[in-house]
Amino acid sequence: MSFxxxxxxxxxxxTTETQxxxxxxGKLSIDFEKYELENGLQVVLHQDKSDPIVSVxxxxxxxxxxxxxxxxxxxxxxxxxxxQESENVPQDQFFKKIxxxxxxxxGGTWQDGTIYYEVVPKNAMxxxxxxxxxxxxxxxxxxxxxxxxxxxxxxxxxxxQRVDNNPYGHxxxxxxxxxxxxxxPYNWQVIGELxxxxxxxxxxxxxxxxxxxxxxxxxxxxxxxxxTAEAKAMIEKYFGEIKKRQPVEKLxxxxxxxxxxxxxxxxxxFATTAQLNMVWPTVEQYTKDAYxxxxxxxxLSEGKKAPLYKVLVKEKELTSDTNAWNRSxxxxxxxxxxxxxxxxxxxxxxxxxxxxxxxxxxxxxxxETDIERIKAGLETQFYNGISSVLGKSFQLAQYNVFxxxxxFITQDIENIKAVTKxxxxxxxxxxxxxxxYVITSFVPKGxxxxxxxxxxxxxVVEEEIKExxxxxxxxxxEEIEKTPSAFDRSVAPKEGDSPKLNIPSSWNTTLxxxxxxxxxxxxxxxxxxxxxxxxxxxxxxxxxKVGVANxxxxxxxxxxxxxxPEQLEEEIELLGASINMYTTREAIVVSGNTLVRNLDKxxxxxxxxxxxxxxxxxEFARIKTKTINDIKRSSANxxxxxxxxxxxxxxxxKHMFAYPTSGTVASVESITIDDLxxxxxxxxxxxxxKFQIVGDLGQGKALEALKNLESxxxxxxxxxxxxxxxxxxxxxxxxxxxxxxxxxxVINIGNLSMAxxxxxxxxxxxxxYKLGGSxxxxxxxxxxxxxxxxxxxxxxxxxxxxxxxxxxxxxxRTNTTxxxxxxxxxxxxxxxxxxxxxxxxxxxxxxxxSNARRFETQGALLGMLxxxxxxxxxxxxxAKEEAxxxxxxxxxxxxxxxxxxxESKMAYLVIGDAATQFExxxxxxxxxxxxxxxxxxxxxxxxxxx
Length: 946
Known about the structure:
Blueprint: H1 11-14, H2 22-26, E1 33-36, E2 42-47, E3 53-60, H3 74-81, H4 93-100, E4 104-109, E5 114-121, H5 125-137, H6 145-164, H7 171-179, H8 194-199, H9 202-212, E6 218-224, H10 228-239, E7 262-268, E8 275-281, H11 288-301, H12 307-315, E9 323-328, E10 333-340, H13 347-364, H14 368-375, H15 378-385, H16 389-403, H17 408-417, H18 421-432, E11 438-444, E12 456-457, E13 507-510, E14 516-521, E15 527-535, H19 548-555, H20 565-574, E16 578-583, E17 587-595, H21 599-611, H22 617-634, H23 638-651, H24 665-670, H25 673-683, E18 689-695, H26 699-705, H27 707-712, E19 733-738, E20 744-752, H28 761-772, H29 778-786, E21 790-798, E22 805-813, H30 817-831, H31 837-849, H32 858-871, H33 877-887, H34 890-900, E23 907-912, H35 914-917, E24 928-932
Parallel strand pairs: 2-6, 7-11, 7-12, 14-18, 19-23, 19-24
Antiparallel strand pairs: 1-2, 3-5, 3-6, 4-5, 8-10, 8-11, 9-10, 13-14, 15-17, 15-18, 16-17, 20-22, 20-23, 21-22
Helix pairs in contact: 3-6, 4-31, 5-10, 11-18, 12-13, 19-25, 28-31, 28-34, 29-30
């Protein structure tokens, strides 16, 4: 499934460094070999034999910046088209063939580029070469009217999901339209204008492909476990014969300036609080000023020392969070301040507060420690960025395309190290101070009084909800003309033997205070990742004060008994470490990431956070305000509404899972800091805790780092409540929650099912795979690939020690809501009749062969240890799961489907526009049709405006 913005690793954004280690950091690099084929394709090879996998990434020098006014969205639309079919790869087979060999794939488009990538077991490397070369050189004859029409619909649904149905979704459109002049390559959005997407033709797309998708405008990166000679021969065979296309000139830098400040306002259908953005034009990437502007954004907004935080959060209480960042792209840049107001607060006051913060910044200046603090995470983040072969592929491709050298990583780090406080002050004075800007005020419907002063209404175009009309497209019956090749490309390469399952060795022990510890030694990088999981979490909340556990995890990161919030924050940053704390339904988790050499100091801070909470009253008040505002904002988000109502409908109001971990506005308002202290004193204990650690260290060193925690953290008895699960659903119930003018409907269909610990849980997960467990699941192939109703549809089981749910879900175009619910219902019913031998073989291949990718990163290994600890699983539990997959028969598959999938007893929840969609469901064969509000309470139909 393609996505709008690819997460390309940029060392400028993803890495910082400790000053004392600057010489060491400066030597960091990724070994590679670069060469060029005769047709202009640039190839970069990087060997990494730590896991039996390979990654192939192909980055084209084409993004939305190559489009023209009236023809926007083409780069992104074409990214979708390249997943359809090619001359030698049939329709919808790109995803299926990669999944069938145990791999994963995706693609992404952004302003400056497009990338496609696969990660597969090493025996399938040739399969990737075959697929990627076929869509590079042997695709355009297959771009038919029907395939094109389908992807037009899919992309429009992506726009509705990401932009139209989200709070503040149109903000970027307003900013870019007004900071970049007409005709500038950044004037439009990557997703494109809806009218352009609707008016695009096959001829338009073919012209765009012919110009930009040739080998002479691409970089191929191969990373992983391969033989160099074999890889080069393979690349030459599959890509060497592809002909050059039109030459693509490098875009010239087109930085912009503003002659005056531009002020805009928009009443947002999904906003419950106002949001301000102030944006200044800056400079292109990799320039000296771009690096300094990155530092400026951090200094102005990040952490307790930041002036924006001090003024807007601490002094004026206008917001609970401040954000400022620079985004320098290939040909221009922009610096942005983004502030979401607290409930009812005026954006005019926030704008004035921003300038007050700027004045404070000028008066207080910058210290060397400030600069060091920002650089402190460089080495850690650099290693995190190359922890996977895919990360290395992205990084090498990015630098080759935009800097002309995959080895630019070294220079990039040096450029970051060279930034001084004088540089930061200089760019502030050059680009921000007293300079014109674009300001946007997005306010809730009917609350234009919250907008910044003198704002004109932005020209946002809202799509009208229309009746669904299916477009029948008849393609020519003529056989597709095939492009000549030196060999028969219609024959898929043979895979060779799949890598055998190789589960990493792990260890576990129990400390004297009762805490269990699990570990894996991984020597590839000098990093450590760890987590402390304290059982209970949200389950330990009381019904009258839901949200205590969540507030607890927030307050415990706000200083310690001996450190102010500001001091604790700075100590963590100066180590180049990260420590986070959060609440889940069943646990409180402390997670961390640091360099091996800094583990002891990092764990000392964890110990202090855990055993010496500060209970800062001022921070508690801020956290409560932030939480309440977040809850109010989420009440307008259709996806959040769907999750909350779905849980309430299935679990009932007597189970804690029926309530969000964050609580409700009323419950959070009632919580005091004494409630948090009581929760802490009653429920924090090593007796219900498990610690997992993965990194470049053995068991001895890991346990040494835990000695203080072992001796100082005394055990106590903690009882975690057990709630009755009432699973007596006996009818098909259609529930509808009204979100007026929603451009998409969020659909959740399902019922309570079983716990993760149930012996049928994993077999049922295997059974679901072809229904909706992947891109090639039946519901996605129909709703997205065949009908074009959605950007994606899935189904699956979710459970823990407590019985969870079976859920089929999607966000669909509003005027296809009824049809989509019916398709889900019909497909679930049909699935119980059994699947084919071919589909079962596909399921087995996809799940078993993908285990070669399962143990690559420290994060993946940490997840495995958490699973082992949470459910008391044996170290070889994955091998046992593989045996279950391998042994599954068609009869077992069918029996599981009939046991756990009963569409006649499911809840069918729709979050959407009642005025246009609700009526259709009244006589559609459901046992009951009920209108609910956002708290899952029944609404009388006479009270609904339709």
